[in-house]
Structure formats: C-alpha cells, structure tokens
Amino acid sequence: MKRFAVSIIAVLATSLPLAAADLPEETIGEVVSFAREDHARLVWVTDMNSPYQAESRAYLIDPDAGRFLGMLNLGYWTNGMQLPATGNRIVATETHFNRTTRGHRTDVVVSYDAASLQPLSEIEIPPKRVSSVKMQGTSALSDDDRFLAQMNFTPAQSVSFVNLETGSFIAEVDVPGCGNIYSGGDREFHLLCGDGSFLTLKVDEDGLVTERLRSAPLFDPFVDPITISGVRKDDTWYFVTLGGALLELAMTEEGVSLIRTWPLISDDDKDDDWSIAGFQHLALHAPSNRLYLLTLQGPPEAFEDPGTAVWVFDLETQTKIDSFELEEISISIALSQDADPLLYVIGAHIPMPFLAQLWIYVTEGEAPLAEVVQLGLDIYEADDGTYLRSVPRLGNAPTYIQPW
Amino acid sequence: MKRFAVSIIAVLATSLPLAAADLPEETIGEVVSFAREDHARLVWVTDMNSPYQAESRAYLIDPDAGRFLGMLNLGYWTNGMQLPATGNRIVATETHFNRTTRGHRTDVVVSYDAASLQPLSEIEIPPKRVSSVKMQGTSALSDDDRFLAQMNFTPAQSVSFVNLETGSFIAEVDVPGCGNIYSGGDREFHLLCGDGSFLTLKVDEDGLVTERLRSAPLFDPFVDPITISGVRKDDTWYFVTLGGALLELAMTEEGVSLIRTWPLISDDDKDDDWSIAGFQHLALHAPSNRLYLLTLQGPPEAFEDPGTAVWVFDLETQTKIDSFELEEISISIALSQDADPLLYVIGAHIPMPFLAQLWIYVTEGEAPLAEVVQLGLDIYEADDGTYLRSVPRLGNAPTYIQPW
Amino acid sequence: MNWFDNFFEKTSRTTARLTSRRGFVAGVGVVLAGAGAFPLLPVSRVRGEEIANDPGDPTNCDYWRYCAIDGYLCSCCGGTHTACPPGTVMSPITWVGTCLNPGDGKHYILSYNDCCGKSGCGRCLCTRNEGDKPMYLPQAANNINWCAGSSADIIYNCSTAIIVGVDDDA
Amino acid sequence: MNWFDNFFEKTSRTTARLTSRRGFVAGVGVVLAGAGAFPLLPVSRVRGEEIANDPGDPTNCDYWRYCAIDGYLCSCCGGTHTACPPGTVMSPITWVGTCLNPGDGKHYILSYNDCCGKSGCGRCLCTRNEGDKPMYLPQAANNINWCAGSSADIIYNCSTAIIVGVDDDA
Question: Catalytic one among C54, C114, C132, C167?
C-alpha cells in the first residue's frame, strides 16, 4: 500500500491550492440517498435476464422523471418480488448456487431495506422454489404482510410458508396438482389447480395451515384456461382466459367462488383475430373500476406474443369503453392507482429510425430487426393513451411491472 | 409425483404402437460427447460478459466447421483460462459469491475435464485475484503445467501459487509495484513492473519461491509503455508498445533481458494516424516466424479501439511483408499453429444489411448503430486474409481468443 | 425463454404452423425417462443435413419438431435436436407437444427435454408456443424451467425435441 | 468495460478530446479517501441541468469530466457524476485523469471512483481512454476493476468523475 500513499502526495502536490474561481474540490464516497416520499410515483420492473439467468435483476424507476433510480440483484432466475404495504422493505425469494451456476443451491427469502436498497435479512427455505418465465402468482403475501407463501416445483408441487415477522421458515405443504398462489381474505392463500378448481389454505397466527378448502372447478382448463396474470381489487380477483373471457373470482376466508364471467374479446373481434397478448396482460385501476387488457391480432398461439393495443373496460357496466394503439409492440402493462393514473408498458424498441426499420423490413424481412430489439419501460397517460416517455434498455428480459 | 406417472400412461396409450413407416422413437437423455481428436482445430473465446459479470463464460468453437461446441461458466468476471499442453484439462481461476453478486467471496482454481467439460476439482486460494477488462498475463502456468501463478490486486499486489499436481495452494507472495505474469524458462514466472523492469520468481519442486531476480528497466513506461498482450515462441516473448514498437524479450531462468526492439509502425505510418488497435493485438505463427498486428487509423487514445486491418511481419527479416483489411472492425486476433494456419478474429457485427447501415449512418449518425453491435468469432485464411466464416453472437463481451 | 429476442421471426414462421390443435389436446402429457441410462453419443446429425422423411434444418426455428418449443435450440449450442451439449445433462421430465411432420403427413409426439448444468446458451432462441398452456397445467407448459427435475438442478442451457411416439388420434 | 457497445460514438466525441497530454502525464496518480466518512446525500444535479462554469450533461459521454473514463456512467444508473446509486458503495481508491474544462479553460484532476455492490448497471457505457495506461501501471489504468478496494469487494456497478484538484502544470 505504500506506493499509493506516495501517489496521493504526488497528486496533492500538483493540485493544491485551488484558486478562488476554480470549481470546488468534491467529496469522494457520496452515495445518493433514496426516499420514497421524494417521488410522486414509483415502479419496479423485474428481469429474469435470460440467457444470463444468474444475473436476474429488478430496476427501480421514477415514471414522472423518466429516471432510473437503482436496482437489486436477485440471484438465479428470479420470479419477482413482493412489496409489503408499509413500503419500508422489499421481499424477494432468491436462489443462489455457491459456484454461481453450479454446486450447492440455497433458496432464501430476502428482505431489502427500501431506503438503502441493501439486504437486511434472509430466511432459508427448502431449495425447491419454481423458476418460470412468468412471475405472477409464484409467491404471495398475506394481507397483513406477516406471511409469505412460495410456490415450489421440483416437479413435485408444494408451498413453503415463511414468517416475515419472526424471520423463520414455518413449513412446506404438499399441494399436488396445484400451482400459482394468490392472497385474499383475512389470512388465506388460494392456489390455482390443474382441474380448474382452487385450493384455499387458511393459516393461523403462527402461519400453520389449519384448514384446506377446495372449490369446484370454476373453468375448463382444457377448453379455455385462465392465465396466471390476475389482478386484484379487495377480495375480488380478475383473470382472463386464453380465449379472452374475464372471470371475476371472490377469494375470501370462505374459499374461491365465481362471481361472474363475461367476454373481453367479442366474437366479432375474434373473427378479426384479436386475442390477449403478452405476459402481464391485465391491469386494474381500482379507484375508477377500469380494467385494461393488452391485445393483438394474430393466430391462436400468439397469446404470448407482444401486443399492439390496449383495450379499456368499465367493470361496473362490463363494457369496452376505450382502446388505443401503443407506440411499440409491448409485453406487459400495469397502472398507477392515483386519480390521474399512468399506464406502464414494457415495450420493444428497435434502436434505429423508423424509416430505416421499414427499409430493412422491405428489403431483408424481419430477421435483422429481431436481432436488435431491446425492451424498456414506456409511460403513457392511462386516460387517453398519450405516450409520455420511456426508460429504454432494461436488461435482457424485463417482463414484470410492479407499481410501488 | 403420482400425477406424472398417470400422464406417462396417457401418453403411451395414445402413442403406441409405432407403425413400420413411422420415424423411430428416440432416446431421452443423450448428451453429445466431445473429443479433441474429432476436430482438426479448436479455439476458445472467453467473455467477461459485462454488464452481467456474474455470468462470465468461455465458448468452444470448431473453426473449420464454424460450429459452437459448448461452453464453460466461469463465475464472476473471469480473466480467462489456462490450457495445459496435455489437452486433457482446462484450468480457470474463478471467483464466486455465496449470494451470486454479494456475500462471502471464494476464489478457486478449477480444473475442468476436457472431454466432459465438467469441473473435476478445485483448489481454494486467497480471495484476492485481479479482475480486469484485459485477460492476458493475469495468470500463468509453468512450462511443465505443474504450477499456476495467479495475479492478485486488492489493490495491494501479490501472486498466489498453486500446485496443480497435488491440488493444493502453496503460498501468496507480495510483489509491490509488479503486475502481469508470464512464464518462460524451466520453472520461472516473470512479472511486468510499473518502472519498466521485470521481476522473475524462480520456484522449486514444491512451488516455493527460492529466488527473485529484478531486471533493469527495459522500456520507459511513462513515454511508451508496452501493452500486456504479449505472444511467445519458446523463451522469447514479443510485446508491442502503445506507440507501435516491438520489444523482443528473453524470459529464461536468467531473468528477463531485451533482445532487440524495432518499429512495427513506421514514422510515415504514424503520420497517417496508424496505431495498434484492440485488446489482443498481437498473434504469432511460430513455425513460420510471422507476427500479426491488429491496427487502425485514429487519434492517440484509440489504441484500445477496434482495428480495421491486420499487418504481417517477418520476425527473421524484421520487415512488414503483408497487410489486409478485415471484414468487420475487430478487437482481438490469434492464429492456429499448423502449416496452413487460420486467423481468428473477434469482430463487431451489425446484424443488418450494409446499405441499411449506411443509410442510418448518413441520416442519424453513429449512435443508432452503436446500440446494435454484436461480437462474434470471424475466421480467415492467415496467409492471405481471405474471409472464411463466422460464429456470430458470442455473449456480450468476448475479448480473448485461445487456440487449443 | 426470452422469446422477444426474435419475435419478429414469428410471422415468417406462420407457414410452419401445421399442428393439429385437436391432436395436441389429445397428446399432451409428461414423459419420464429412466434415470441413470443417459448415454454419451457422437453428434448424429449436423446442421443442414436433410433426411427425406424428417425434412428441415434442426438449427432453424422453422423445423417441424419445434412447433411447441420455447427455448434455445440445443442444435446451435453444441448439442443436436435430440442430444444435449457437452457438459450438460438432460432433464428427464418435461412437457410434450404434437407436431405434424410434413415429410410423412403424420403427427408425432415430441418431448421437449431441457439440457441443464450450464447457463443459458443464448443462441437460436425459438418460441412457437403451439398448444402451450399456463404453468398450473405443467404437463403442457413451456414457461416452466424443467431443469427443476434434472441432476444439475435449475441451471437451464437449451431445449431438445425428441420423438416419443405417433399420435394416431390426430 | 465493454466499450464496444458504443464505440461508434467515439468519432463524434472527437471534439470533446481537449485534454492536455502533457497535463495528464503530470497529473496521474491515485487518490485515497478517508474510509468511514461516506455521507448519504440527495441528488445534487439532475440530467440536463447546466452549470455555467461546468458545462455539459453528466448523463452524456461527451461531458468534459469523462475524458479518461471507461465504464457505465453513474448519472444514468441512479447516482450522479459524483455520487453512487442507492444500494452501492464507492470504492475509495481508483485511477485519476486530467481533463480540460471548457467552461473555464482550466485542467482539472478527476478521480474516477467506481460504485460497487450491485452488478453492472449496463446503461450509458462511456469509454474515452485519454491517457489510459496498461494495468501494470494501475494508477493510470481504467481497465482494472477498482471495486477491488471497496467494502463491497469486486462487484462493479458504475463509475463517477470527481474533481480532486486543478492541474496548474497543464
């Protein structure tokens, strides 16, 4: 270290003193402090980052400033985070290997401090959590933020329960035939099962499962299954089927029941090849009871392809009240919950002028364009679909948006 | 697991028996076997993969078939591998964190089996190894492949010695003021020091340092330093300075001495703004005594920018005997060592037609093109620079080529 | 996998969408191979080689067997369409799909086993999704990381497409 | 860092190459900050904000302070040109360069401290390399991961450009 001490003196000798009119000497070691209250709105975007799955991440963005604020590293192939209502921490189930991509596997539920974005604590759980391309419904918080339920897949199906207050793993519960998890009711977790039914697990003050309720099949998974991308208002969850039907489900301490079902995509629209699109294709603005659906025109297997339009529905009247084209083809949507909401969209950007794109398309087809697509967060006015701004280039595979 | 057993039966019931003319049922579980002797030539390309440094990798390529054969995961921000002459194993110093990008750090020297590409064993060393953008000279093998010397930077400078035969860490030796490591002589390691001299460490049968030799300064590091990208023939190493002068250095059991120095880039060429280029800018074809240099035309600070041309020198006559333009701007070069050698080049590809690139450049400038560059391995005839084929899209930051 | 790297290729693949929807529904299921019997075999088919009754290029996403796939093609990653790259292991359990072979007009049941133990290959991403179902229906779900069932745990490298039968009902 | 993401930007930055070469040689060295005195401060300057005698946009690679940098600009990563993003720590030891400030015509000594503890930001890669030296001359080498000296070890996130003095010899 002696050589460095010498160098410091060399620098100081040539650089002191600062003249009066010079720019001032600055401090080394500063770190920007983050405070939620400094931002009117915030949003997280989570990225499994394939093919570099060991580098999965979440990006924090101020949508009003269009500013990238920071990020979390979430280990191997994240399935996203949970955001407790208090806002003072962020909870993520993470998988790590002691040799990065091989060796001993450890699964931990990590709590991050929401101000410093540093990990505060972790709870080890059985190394069985699911990894999947879509993140919604792979874990859930109880409404009091005390318990986290984690979906496992080995490929045997089970759920791990964690007590976030005591910082301890509670138990692993087998749930054969059931997968994605949603919360609703006082302290209930509701699992979506392969026969179209739901399994409700009620937990007690210690997070132990005291009762299991199984609903009747509420849809036919072989004819028209719902996707996992549900949205929630109070104890009502809204899911859409691959065929574009909305299911309104009550998820309460009584279990899960069907409130009603109605089509978001009419037969006429289907004849025009309209279908649901993308990964996170539903968004709900709870104060106004408006539901947003990401859509595209394409063949039946296109349901996971990027959407080109957003349709707006009034949940009170069960009618389509608006629709607008998006600036870019897009894979996920979400909404802020304030009075003048923003629509958040993960859009595919081709970093070149439109006319150049068009020329390449005409002369060479789609393949050259496919190689250069980058995904970023696009921000629109939710009321009329006015495009506002973008935060481009968010990793390799950002798919999941969580307003915070 | 019961549900899966049921499903298997369901599949078999609908699928058996296969009719005579059907394509045959295939085996599940096959893995392609790799054998070096099946390939006339082979080459490794190593990738620090920034900004996803935890996912650093090495890619194995058959340059004659233009085929990607497999890869290794090398942990956090690799500085490359060592390839013992026997060819039956691959040795890499790796850094891993127990939470992927945070937590407890472990540095290990890993031996991979060259046939299965699986890790065979690892030797833990002090968690101090350097991480840097350029990989050459960050570790070295003794000529008998028994000992590995690893450059450390914390930022205090030291070397860790490992015995690959016994699988054990030997010792850490302080080397203040000295950095990159090169082997030469019987069992000597030669370190490049900040004053332009070399420090030679002689090790005994147990890998312990028994003698330290310090050369005189062999160049002026403040006027025209050599780069770290040296190439070797027997006990002679060839280095080029930022200003384009070649240094021929004898590295033997006697230490390091200057054989001669001569310009690769003449004053006339410098007047035309020619300079060295890229990361791995020297390549040597030992059987024919030909030296290849990657070059570009640009300002003084462009020495690390991609090159556009390769110049060929005869080391016997110390003359430039050939030069050719590369198909793509390129950052690294290497040569096979057979009688009819291949030139390996890491080139920057813009995945769109040239006319489209030109139009974008004319209408929008360079920024849109910069966003879409991808790097791959280009293969040329070394004799006349004829372009043969490419293996495109090798990760995010492939920089280092090692013929195998 | 992150299909969006090449979703523009999709439209051009429309002509390859030959799967019988009815056939798929009949054929979905999960195939469990015997563990411990994974042979090491030389590359049996290289890029561009054509076989009369199995037409197409296994390094191209248009190849008929890939009708329900979602991942990196092992044929581009050091493996083949039926074998894993060196240094990886094949996950024994996965989802299956039914695809129409234009070489003989028959519907085959394909098992899309993942290769595991090296991280994402990143080459020849192919997402066709025909018959893909949500992940709570795992036997037909290509969004799940099926390396979960492999000896290399969940480290996903690439995907294969292996014939496990003919679907006579299709 | 992997400068090639934007090496095409280089030519357009030629006009920003205002550094005195003589000044750089005089000014290289290493700055060691006192550990344990790293304050948390609010963002002091946001994108596009102009200061008369410190002209330019700190989120743009052309900004005069970045003449010798090689890395992701912290200004694009949640930090500023002088402060690290939330969740990271600043490495106290790094390389320095000398850059000409077109706002006052003076040469300043810049310390390019790395921010560490989150992995590569990947935004606003900036590689200008003026005066960069090989890594066996660490005090002037931007190819080294200077997070090696930080409390977060070698996990590199982004780079800053902090004024530590005026180079009167330049």
Answer: C114
pLDDT of residue C153: 95
- Please judge whether B51 and D153 are an interchain contact, meaning their C-beta atoms are less than 8 angstroms apart: no
**Structure tokens, B182:** 């090169």
The alpha carbon of D116 is separated from its chain's Cα centroid by a whole number of angstroms, namely 14
Q: D114-156: per-residue pLDDT in tens?
A: 999 999 999 999 988 888 899 999 988 999 999 998 999 999 9
Q: Which residues of C touch B397 (CB under 8 A)?
A: none
| Domain segments of chain C as ranges | 2-39, 45-166
Is residue C64 part of the annotated active site? The answer reads: no
Summarize pLDDT for B293-303 with one digit per residue, the tens: 999 998 877 88
- Please tell me the distance in Å from D117's CA to the nearest CA on chain B: 7
Structure-block tokens of residue B225: 């330093």
**Rounded distance, CA B136 to CA B283, Å?**
13
Question: Which residue of D lies nearest to B227 if distances are taken between CA atoms?
Answer: D134
Which of the 8 DSSP states describes residue B22?
A: S
Q: ω into residue B51 within 30 of 0, thus cis?
A: yes
* pLDDT band (50, 70, 90) for residue C169: confident
B20 CA: distance to closest CA in chain D (Å): 55
Active site residue C146: no
Please tell me the distance in Å from D63's CA to the nearest CA on chain A.
15
Specify the pTM.
Answer: 0.89
Quick one: which of B146, D34, B260 has its CA closest to A27?
D34
Q: What structural domains does chain B harbor?
A: 79-253 (2.130.10.10)
| CATH T-level fold of C45-166 | Electron Transport Ethylamine Dehydrogenase (2.60.30)
Q: How far apart are CA A199 and CA A189, in angstroms?
A: 8
CA distances A184 to A232, A362, C134, Å, are 9, 51, 21
| Catalytic residue ranges of D | 95, 114
Helix B354-364 and helix A354-364, axial crossing angle in degrees, nearest 10: 170
